[in-house]
Design goal:
CATH superfamily: Gcn5-related N-acetyltransferase (GNAT)
Helix content: 25-40%
Number of strands: 8
Shape: globular
CATH topology: Aminopeptidase
Oligomer: single chain
Strand order of the largest sheet: 1-2-3-4-5
Strand content: 25-35%
Length: 169
């Protein structure tokens, strides 16, 4: 599966590489950044989680992209499309390292990923599953025009379901 490279004003959204492991492992070692996505883990588990992101592309034909800051070339997070086995429906998701939060990167990347889903994959709508206490991600969903439509129990936790606006297509 060839992962397309996308761009936004300030980000390159590209395929995962083996060299992303150190940055992703640091991201997942931090309980603050990992608490809403399964919790902190060691480098070996981070490798497996990264491989899951890569494998999603092969199995679904879409997935998440690494977010690379254009100005610096730094790994700043990931965003994309997610629908693993047992998920209620396709999701737009994001995660940023703490040093770059508050700059609008999550909104920029998730918005671009959603356009890809609608224009290239033919999705009519999408959701984002966000922990009720994750106010920063709720703000991103709001900026993207998503509306909270209920709660779901998923993998022994509760998430709010945020519905993205329907595709214009």
């Amino acid at each position: 599966m060839q992962v397309p490279t996308l761009e936004t004003e300030r980000l390159v959204m590209r395929a995962w590489r083996g060299t992303d492991h150190a940055a992703f492992a640091a991201f997942l070692a931090n309980e603050d950044t990992a608490r809403f996505i399964g919790g902190a883990c060691d480098a070996a588990d981070a490798w497996r989680r990264m491989c899951t992101q890569i494998g999603h592309w092969a199995l679904r034909g879409y997935g998440s992209w690494v977010l690379e800051e254009k100005a610096s070339g730094d790994w700043v997070g990931y965003s994309g499309l997610w629908n693993p086995h047992g998920w209620p429906e396709p999701e737009v998701m994001w995660g940023l390292k703490p040093e770059v939060r508050g700059r609008g990167y999550a909104t920029e990347a998730a918005g671009r990923a959603r356009v890809f889903a609608y224009d290239n994959l033919g999705w009519r709508t999408a959701i984002s599953l966000i922990a009720p206490e994750n106010r920063p991600s709720q703000k991103v969903a709001e900026r993207l025009g998503a509306q909270r439509e209920g709660k779901i129990e998923l993998r022994s936790s509760v998430a709010d379901v945020w519905r993205h606006p329907a595709s214009a297509n």
